[in-house]
């Protein structure tokens, strides 16, 4: 399942402009807070990653596609001294946001770079996090780069939107097209642009767990079990109404992940892999 785009250059431009400006970066960071669906998604994903990293004693860690540094800040706060962190993103505005979020003496290295062609040497890292970035890249090429910079025996943690979950199927197949159609009608009748509905095109291409595991194997990475996160049966826009009332996910994040039969309800999933 993917958001339709006309060509690879168009997709690359859609990805590039999304977080090229500081205001857009700030909006992305703000989405991690509050009680909405996006906040729950990020909170659940972070909890799932914490569970995987719990078995990792530390080392050189790369957060590629780091965004504004929310995970970097979280690791500094919860695992102080365990990891020597490098944060990398293709958006200079994102890297500026990371620099503003971490102390100068925290020892975090910052780099602007594309996951498909990273500015690092071979086998530099013990742990590589690729969260929310593979959807915007050529996943096969990106995973070969991830494998290249990971030391043998090292840990790679990948996440992906779940294209077959009820939430994503409805969001991408019904909710977003309906908002675009409504926005087009509002334009015809003269509704001001600031009040029109819509849904921006993102360039997202989401892979199934089976496909992602296959690409991990091909890149020289041995995948483990699939962990689903942000598990929910609700779809947009009903989910917003439900989550205004049910806020237990912050106090009990373990209820938002699944490893068994309920995995298909996760709006995203995680696969950890070992570098062969």
TrEMBL record:
Transmembrane segments: none
Keywords: Methyltransferase, Transferase
Domain of life: Bacteria
Single biological process term from Gene Ontology: methylation
Domain Methyltransferase type: from-to ranges: 62-157
Classification via InterPro entries: Methyltransf_11, SAM-dependent_MTases_sf
Molecular function terms, GO-annotated: S-adenosylmethionine-dependent methyltransferase activity
Official protein name in the record: Methyltransferase type 11
Species of origin: Amycolatopsis mediterranei (strain S699)
High-level lineage: Bacteria, Bacillati, Actinomycetota, Actinomycetes, Pseudonocardiales
């Amino acid at each position: 399942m993917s958001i339709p785009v006309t060509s690879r250059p168009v997709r690359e431009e859609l990805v590039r402009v999304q977080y090229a400006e500081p205001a857009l970066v700030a909006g992305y960071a703000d989405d991690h807070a509050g009680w909405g669906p996006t906040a729950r998604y990020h909170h659940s994903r972070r909890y799932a990653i914490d569970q995987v990293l719990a078995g990792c004693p530390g080392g050189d860690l790369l957060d590629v596609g780091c965004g504004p540094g929310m995970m970097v800040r979280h690791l500094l706060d919860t695992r102080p001294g365990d990891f020597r962190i490098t944060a990398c993103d293709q958006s200079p505005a994102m890297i500026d946001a990371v620099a503003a979020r971490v102390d100068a003496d925290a020892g975090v290295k910052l780099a602007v770079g594309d996951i498909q062609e990273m500015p690092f040497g071979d086998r530099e890292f013990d742990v590589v996090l690729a969260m929310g970035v593979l959807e915007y890249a050529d996943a096969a090429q990106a995973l070969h780069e991830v494998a290249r910079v990971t030391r043998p025996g090292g840990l790679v943690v990948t996440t992906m939107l779940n294209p077959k979950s009820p939430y994503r199927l409805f969001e991408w197949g019904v909710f977003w097209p309906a908002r675009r159609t409504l926005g087009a009608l509002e334009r015809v009748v003269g509704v001001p642009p600031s009040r029109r509905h819509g849904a921006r095109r993102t360039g997202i291409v989401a892979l199934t767990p089976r496909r992602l595991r296959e690409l991990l194997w091909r890149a020289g990475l041995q995948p483990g079990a699939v962990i689903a996160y942000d598990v929910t049966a609700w779809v947009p826009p009903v989910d917003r109404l439900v989550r205004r009332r049910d806020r237990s996910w912050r106090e009990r994040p373990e209820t938002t992940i699944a490893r068994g039969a309920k995995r298909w309800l996760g709006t995203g999933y995680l696969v950890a892999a070992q570098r062969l």
